[in-house]
Amino acid sequence: MVTLALYNLKGGVGKTAATINLAYLAAKEGYKTLVWDMDPQGSSSFYLGVEANTKNESKKLLNSEMDLLDAVQNSAYPNLDIIPADLSARHADVLLSEMKQSKRKISSLLSSLKKDYDVVILDCPPGISLLHDAIFFGADWVFMPNIPTTLSIRSYETVLTYFKENELDSAKLKCFFSMVDHRKNLHHEVMNNFYKDKFFLKSYIPYLSDVEKMGIHEAPLETFAASSYAAQCYRDLWKEIRKNCIDD
Ligand SMILES: Nc1ncnc2c1ncn2[C@@H]1O[C@H](COP(=O)(O)OP(=O)(O)O)[C@@H](O)[C@H]1O
Ligand SMILES: [Mg+2]
Fold first, then answer.
1. What are the structural domain ranges in the chain?
2. What are the pLDDT digits (tens) for 38-48?
3. For ligand 1, atom 3, which residue shows the shortest CA distance?
4. Looking at residues 89-117, what average pLDDT do you find?
5. Are the beta carbons of 117 and 33 closer than 8 angstroms?
6. Residue having the nearest C-alpha atom to atom 27 of ligand 1
7. How far apart are CA 21 and CA 210, in angstroms?
8. Can you tell me the distance from the alpha carbon of 20 to that of 221, in angstroms, rounded to the nearest whole number?
9. How far is ligand 2, taken at its centre, from the CA of residue 125, in Å?
């Protein structure tokens, strides 16, 4: 089982769009795939048309009142399951602050999924907190979508420094550009500078309205716009991730 966290300190950078499209592509190729929605906004849950069945479910999962496997729900697509989020996910940091070894919590919860899944994708809330420490420790890979602008790159550098200062394994950190606007010189300049950086994948996701339409269709791109450029970009990103992080 390989666990990928879709993460950024910043919100609104394309974490959830990537979670859903990458998870769909993994499942389509036959990997038993689970999305674990950790964001109280529940956007991944919305895209896959699923709601938590139990009151305060996200909170109960984190404090081990409920088994992770009991929260798993099937999506409409073969091989693709989801643990949905509800608003109680907002209590994650308080719960973790009351636990011993909170850094190991996500890792130990994930171990209960090993027999059932090949790929687990964590759709993370933005921020940098005890929950993120546990995600950084427990995930095999941390993927950061980055908009090629000054503030987004600054947040990437903050995270990289945080990894180094907190003895986290920065080798598991990978970035890809997201919401790239080819009409903007700044985007080109930032991308050219950062492609030299070993943390950046070659594939990137442009700013395309088909991605926004996922909200109307409540579905992954492949299901309603498989021939679009946007769907092609996510397929390229998935292939690069699979080659570098899953099949080796
Ligand atoms: N490549 C893209 N092109 C255009 N719109 C995008 C793209 N990626 C995401 N969006 C839109 O931007 C908003 C935030 O994206 P989302 O994936 O929810 O970000 P995050 O999970 O990082 O908060 C959503 O409305 C989404 O539809
Ligand atoms: Mg999101």
1. 2-246
2. 999 999 999 99
3. 207
4. 96
5. yes
6. 212
7. 12
8. 9
9. 6
Question: What are the tens digits of pLDDT across the range 123-170?
Answer: 999 999 999 999 999 999 999 999 999 888 889 999 999 999 998 999
Tell me the residue length of the chain.
248
Q: Which residue has the tokens 């964590």?
A: 122
Reading the block at residue 218, the tokens are: 């409540």
Domain spanning 2-246, CATH architecture = 3-Layer(aba) Sandwich (3.40)
Q: Angle, to 10 degrees, between the axis of helix 229-241 and the axis of helix 15-28?
A: 70
Identify each DSSP E strand in the chain by its residue range.
Answer: 2-6, 33-37, 73-74, 80-83, 119-123, 141-146, 173-177
Note the pTM of the prediction, 2 decimals. 0.97
- Residues touching ligand 1 (Cβ under 6 Å) are 11-17, 43, 178-179, 205, 207-208, 211-212, 214-215
